[in-house]
Amino acid sequence: DTGVSQDPRHKITKRGQNVTFRCDPISEHNRLYWYRQTLGQGPEFLTYFQNEAQLEKSRLLSDRFSAERPKGSFSTLEIQRTEQGDSAMYLCASRSEASYGLADYTGELFFGEGSRLTVL
Amino acid sequence: AQKITQTQPGMFVQEKEAVTLDCTYDTSDQSYGLFWYKQPSSGEMIFLIYQGSYDEQNATEGRYSLNFQKARKSANLVISASQLGDSAMYFCAMREGDDYKLSFGAGTTVTVRA
Questions:
Q1: How far apart are the first and last CA of chain B?
Q2: Sign of the four-CA dihedral A61, B41, A114, A120
Q3: Which residues pair with residue B52 across a beta bridge?
Q4: Cβ contacts (< 8 Å) between B100 and chain A: which residues?
Q5: DSSP conformation class of A84
Q6: Fewer CB near the terminus (10 Å): N or C of chain B?
Q7: Please, are residues B100 and A31 in contact by the beta-carbon 8 Å criterion?
Q8: From A43, A89, A109, residue closest to B100, measured CB to CB
Q9: What's the Cα-to-Cα distance from A90 to each of A44, A45, A108, B27, B45, rounded to whole Å?
Q10: Residue A108 DSSP code
């Protein structure tokens, strides 16, 4: 499978513990995005990378959250001292910047299947 | 202010009939794009269709078509010949400029009845 993959798919943790999610984007995609989706809502942007550079962080990303993309390939999203309000689906997405403007450009942002976090 | 508004929390449709999902958007950018994604209960976001703000023709992809009315700032999704497998949550989303920090609506749950 050459799509965006995320691991783990499900994580249950106790409040106060740290958790880390991993995202492997489509290999030639230079842009990688993290979104958070709470139950019954649409996804909300958290942060994005161009290659290894983190270009923007949403105000939703508190100091307890950190994201990295050390070699411009996979990315990790770590949540420290988890709180019950962190319970959500964490979605990763990727795209190739190079495709923008091409005749066959579909505008697609490719999403992974998400990592569902439950904080008890 | 909400950038994407989906006013229909849930809809029922009979199998083989068409259904229209409403989406209105708010942006001051001249260059933007509108997306529709399907999210089944398993959670993955499945891309359905895309419309760029400069595209003159309404986008179509198989049974999906996007009714783009720029002056009204609406981008409704039409699903023709509904199938049981179309039962899912549907999200409208927008990018502004080349910025892919997509803004999503709250979604519409579609239930297809046999």
A1: 39
A2: positive
A3: B33
A4: 31, 33, 48, 95, 109
A5: G
A6: N
A7: yes
A8: A109
A9: 10, 10, 19, 26, 12
A10: P
